[in-house]
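Researcher: I'd like a structural prediction for the single chain below. Treat it as a standalone chain; there are no partners to consider.
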Amino acid sequence: MQNAAIKRVNVSSLKTGSAQQKKSKKTDRRSNFGKRFLSSCMEFQSPTSRPTSSDVVLNHHPPFPIIHQFLLPPPLLPTPSTVLLPVPFNPSLFFTMDNQRSISLLQFMVDEGLVPSAEEEDKRKSVIRKLKQVVSSWIKKVACLHQLPDHQIAVTSATVLTYGSYGLGVHSSGSDIDALCVAPFFASIAEDFFIVLHDMLKRRPEVSYIHCVKSAKVPLMRFKFEGVSIDLPYARLNVLYVPENVDILNPFFMRNIDDTSWKSLSGVRANKYILHLVLNIEKFQCILRCLKLWAKRRGVYGTSLGYLGGVHMTVLAAYVFLRHPDATLNALIMHFFQTFAFWPWPTPVMLQEGMLTVIDGIETRSYMPIFLPSSRYEHCHTNITKSTFFRIRSEFLQGHEMTKDILKPDFLWDNVFEPFPYTERYSRFLKICLSSPNHYALVEWVGWVKSRFRGLLLHLEATQGFCDPNPTEYVDSEKTEPNVVFYWGLKSNKNNFLDIDSVKGEFMKIIKNGYEGSPGRMEMSILLASQLPN
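Model: Treating it as a single chain, here is the predicted structure.
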């Protein structure tokens, strides 16, 4: 979900690309997470504790072929280029290199500041605790408004469940919190949630920038609580009392709930199910943090732009992790790239056997179908198009090419996580500038326009053949109004002409359809790479 506050990056960083997108955070101290995992990593990777018979083969099969029979085996893949090991094979050298890569990746994570500090963790826990207190007071008030009997008012309760990156424990510094308000059957979303709870939150001094997003696929409230951005959707269960840590995987609580509640609960259920499946949660969190950073650096992260989102990365990472639970951190990264570089899309990715019983009609036409693990009927909604599918697949292939040789002497993780060089790949860019009179209005305007970007992307593919929407949000410092700028890469072709007025007109029709607020401004123009602002 989107952050309440838009990340601002100056347009001058676009041309300098790689260097300026890297974080400059360097620290000499490892976090508690880093210390614990480094210790377990070194202990696990001892050659005496690792099997050699199933981890390394000296033929043309992929390395580490560990398959759990109770899970679906991966589809047959085209013969990939594999790790070529010198003969005679030296197991000690192999394990040493694998161990060194894993430890250096862990240190890379610490240096990049991927693990929040203890102070940040305490603040987030405090925010969730206070939000739960507000929700508890709210449901009592709603019960009184509905004139429930006194004994029912006394026992009724509601709670807040976290999910997404925070619920999985893979959030980074400054990331938002996805939290779900779960209440009893009598509390309506239209009045009790979007009016009564909204007003209670708005009156609190710790809450700012609160607004309702009723038109989203999953309606929610978005606000900041003590500076922490929170997305809060709503679900109601057919019960009078919702336990604080309700087991949402229990079928009892899913009986006869409405469609909105089902959609809102799907993210929480998927999180809990995946954490239930993986045996080593800390190692899974580590690999998922790495893969999310990689996707962001390579420009293939962001569902509104047609790329992978957090839930997609979680399922893909879990698929690999469950099939190689004893692999090292380095080996898991290798497996990930090798698996999905040669995956026979559109074969669905599923964590559970027997899931493919009912397939959504829309999802059968998806380029990269990925199914949620908590239900055989649900898939992860994607906006992936022909262009973004090509980009994602290309990045999988490049990741495999860069990591496949375990004995490569000059290997550096910095190269794997190098930001995508847009200005080296594209000679033309579509500039999309969104602006509003104030920051509050800009947040709503940008969020709505981004939710409609798929329509623009499909139109550009039809006229230009290919478009690479850079997910990074920039700021045009020359404009006085609050603004957000996107630069989308366009491939050169025989006919470079693009009727920008026509494109803008068609897209404005899509944007205005259903928008309830006051629309901001949108400007479009075509720039050559040499014309990008410095």
